[in-house]
């Protein structure tokens, strides 16, 4: 079972960058698909990006394509989300998720506690 802890959130100006990390202390990281979701205040949780167990396949929401990059280091049991050219509408709590099922139509089965990202205009 995955045990996920996010870090790297914070306050940044529009146009800036942040890198989120998600550490998994469980034993399943290298065989699970991983992903990121986000939830803005008063809105539903939305898919951001996902990556297959070996990093060979990645998927992105249209709203972040070309700006965000998901990656993973299986030797470190860590997932990353590099966020560039941030916009105020990227402001949300970002959640890391793990799923033993396919990365296609990633839904997430195990969740971290979330990290706040705030982008000021």
Q: What report would you give on this structure?
A:
The protein has 121 residues and is an all-beta fold. Helix content is 0%, strand content 50%. It contains no helices and 11 strands. The strands form 2 sheets. Strands 2, 4, 5, 6, 9, 10 and 11 form a 7-stranded mixed β-sheet that branches. Strands 1-3-8-7 form a 4-stranded antiparallel β-sheet, with no helix packed on it. It starts with a strand and ends with a strand. 35% of the residues are buried. The model has no long low-confidence stretch (mean pLDDT 96).
List its traits.
single chain; 121 residues; mainly beta; 7-stranded mixed β-sheet; 4-stranded antiparallel β-sheet; 0% helix; globular
Give a brief description.
With 121 residues, the protein is mainly β.
Helix- and strand-based class?
Answer: mainly beta
Q: Choose one word for the global shape.
A: globular
Count every beta strand, where a strand is a DSSP E run of 2 or more residues.
Answer: 11
Order of helices and strands: EEEEEEEEEEE
Low-pLDDT windows of residues = none
CA(first)-CA(last) distance: 39 Å
